[in-house]
Amino acid sequence: LNYRVFAENAWRGGEAADLKELTERYAASFFPENTQGALKALLTALDFTLGRYSRTNHLISRFVFYAYCMFRVDTEYPHDYPAKAYRLLRDEEDKYLPYLKATYNKALSSYEFFSKNTLSETGKIWELISLQYLSQADEYLTIYSCNNLYNKGTIDENHFISELNRLIENRKKTIESLKQKPIFCDFIYRRWNRCLQCLKTLEGKEK
After folding, report:
1. Of residues 192, 185, 188, the one with CA closest to residue 157
2. What is the pLDDT of residue 206?
3. pLDDT tens-digit series, residues 122-152
4. How many Å apart are CA 191 and CA 7, to the nearest integer?
5. How far is it, in rounded angstroms, from Cα 41 to Cα 177?
6. C-alpha angle with apex 51: 14 to 175, nearest 5 degrees?
């Protein structure tokens, strides 16, 4: 879709179509079997991926590992990731928690469409894009929520561990699909082991 936008602006200049019109053409061209469904899913995907090469896309610029792997002036290096991202979520919860929830819901919607209704290579690309955003948002929301609930005594270690296991399996699926380095998965494993140690300690006290 990016190349189509570039081509449109290069050839037509000021008469170029807007993004919605281009997306309509794109949907009709690549998803003729369900153009309207694809158009809705594409517009949803374009919404949560908007600004993915800039700081306006909070998931990419503030929560994924890539944002923390480079040296920056006036910051520590190596970065304390993902703890630093969780502190950001804690400190600015009113800003980032609704954003992550919205991203999760939008990514889930587009993922469900592209994973169930398309067989083309183009559809597979959009499915993977949606899956990447979906898994990242799910991990942050789940771990942040479970950590808060566990600290309040609302859930126990077993519940926390079951959620971490779910995230681990989902991340394995995402890694296999995207062939990406499992940085965040390592963190989930460490968190899982910590909960497991707590559980073993409690079992020992009961005996």
Report:
1. 192
2. 44
3. 888 899 889 988 988 999 999 999 999 998 9
4. 47
5. 20
6. 130
| Contact assessment for residue 112 and residue 57, using Cβ atoms and an 8 Å cutoff | no
Q: Quote the pLDDT of residue 113.
A: 95
Q: Please write down the HEC assignment for all residues of the chain.
A: CHHHHHHHHHHHHHHCCCHHHHHHHHHHHHCHHHHHHHHHHHHHHHHHHCCCCCCCCHHHHHHCHHHHCCCCCCCCCCCCCCHHHHHHHHHCHHHHHHHHHHHHHHHHHHHHHHHHHCCCHHHHHHHHHHHHHHHHHHHHHHHHHHHHHHHHCCCCHHHHHHHHHHHHHHHHHHHHHHCCCCHHHHHHHHHHHHHHHHHHHHHHHHC
Q: What is the CA radius of gyration of the chain?
A: 20
Rounded to 10 degrees, the C-alpha dihedral 46/47/49/51 comes to 110
> Is the pLDDT at 194 greater than 50, yes or no?
yes
pLDDT more than 70, % of the chain? 70
- Provide the angle, in degrees to the nearest 10, between the axes of the packed helices 121-152 and 183-206: 30
Overall residue count recorded for the chain in this entry: 207
pLDDT of residue 125: 86
Is 137:104 a contact under the CB 8 Å cutoff? yes
| Torsion sign over Cα 89, 90, 91, 94 | positive
Question: What predicted TM-score, i.e. pTM, was given to this entire model?
Answer: 0.77
- Is pLDDT larger for residue 101 or for residue 157? 101
